[in-house]
Amino acid sequence: GAGVSQSPRYKVAKRGQDVALRCDPISGHVSLFWYQQALGQGPEFLTYFQNEAQLDKSGLPSDRFFAERPEGSVSTLKIQRTQQEDSAVYLCASSSRRLAAEQYFGPGTRLTVT
Amino acid sequence: KQEVTQIPAALSVPEGENLVLNCSFTDSAIYNLQWFRQDPGKGLTSLLLIQSSQREQTSGRLNASLDKSSGRSTLYIAASQPGDSATYLCAVFETSGSRLTFGEGTQLTVNP
């Protein structure tokens, strides 16, 4: 079946622009996670949804970052007034149960802020 | 705060060798540990998941072990092939949180 998909795969933004990154999880998966991966580093947690509820947003680096999952399926990560330090790969993952089930990752969106 | 360390950071081996990748974590209060593979420019592919109550998991040429009390896991790759070349990441899911915490990865190169 279809895996986790993300769009766009690549995004170039000028400093100060707003961007929106989309994640389509595996159908029926209740848990959805966003991670940020800087070059040469492991992914770092941003936020977690269980269905439409955002239960943990403690990893969001600033109030410029906002995530939503209004119908408990597709999720959007929005970054306002992008800065150069926001350049990274943004990974989305989903899992079939609450919390600690196996996570399946999408291909990521590579964001470059110029 | 949970910290995950992977050693070595990079490894280059000739084809056919058996090899071991190491992962250590500082807080043993975990639900599970997951090993991933990441190819350049790609997302993460789950290889093995070990629940906290398990000691090891096997899939094909891969075997992962977990010693929760000492905070260590190893990924054993038998008869390595050039197609195994990738970055291998381990991650733990803590009982106190809602996230995976990752190491920085081991970059493996298998030479033909």
Provide an overview of this structure.
The complex is a heterodimer of chains A (114) and B (112). Chain A has 114 residues and is mainly β. Chain A is 0% helix and 48% strand. Chain A is built from no helices and 11 strands. In chain A, the strands form 2 sheets. In chain A, strands 2, 4, 5, 6, 9, 10 and 11 form a 7-stranded mixed β-sheet that branches. In chain A, strands 1-3-8-7 form a 4-stranded antiparallel β-sheet, with no helix packed on it. Chain B is built from no helices and 11 strands. In chain B, the strands form 2 sheets. In chain B, strands 2, 4, 5, 9, 10 and 11 form a 6-stranded mixed β-sheet that branches. A 5-stranded antiparallel β-sheet of chain B has the order 1-3-8-7-6, with no helix packed on it. Chain B starts with a strand and ends with a strand. The chains are: A mainly beta (114), B mainly beta (112). The interface between A and B is medium-sized, with 26 and 24 residues.
Give a summary of the structure in a few sentences.
By secondary structure, chain A is an all-beta fold. Chain A has strands at residues 5-7, 10-13, 19-24, 31-37, 44-50, 53-56, 65-68, 75-79, 88-95, 104-105, 109-113. Chain B is globular, with a radius of gyration of 13 Å.
